[in-house]
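In this section we walk through a basic example: taking a raw amino acid sequence and producing a predicted 3D structure, encoded as discrete structure tokens. The instruction is simple. Fold the sequence below.
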Amino acid sequence: MPFIQLTLPAGVLDERARRGLRDTLAATLLHWEGAPDTAFFRAQAWAQIQEVPGNDFGALGDDLPRFRVDVTVPEGALSDRRRAGLVQQATADVLAAAGLPADDAPRVWVLVREQPEGTWGAAGTVIRFADLKAAAAQQRA
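The resulting token sequence is shown next.
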């Protein structure tokens, strides 16, 4: 159930960079969740890039682009180490796609939200984290 969404001002990334970053962010999320790199788990790693008009997303004091990465994962899917790695790598992914140096990292925010157990469903049923862990273990075997 991992979902990653990037919100940024329109026009910062060209079409190729946007598509590449969408796939990169989804792969980054799967990696830090520790999910196996299989067709099943790739199909569950949803990613979205949402562009908003440039004058609708910014900060006081300058007109530099800002980037917000929203991540939703099942509760318990990320340890502190994995969460920190995800934040660091997602930030680096965004900076690389935008052609920005590491000094611009404060303009990238990564917000990690854990979806409480029993509050996510797919295919008409509630999905439990234990079920996802079991599926991952089976696919690794």
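Looking at the output, two observations stand out. The two ends are 21 Å apart (CA to CA). The CA atoms of residues 21 and 94 lie 7 Å apart. In the next section we compare this with other chains.
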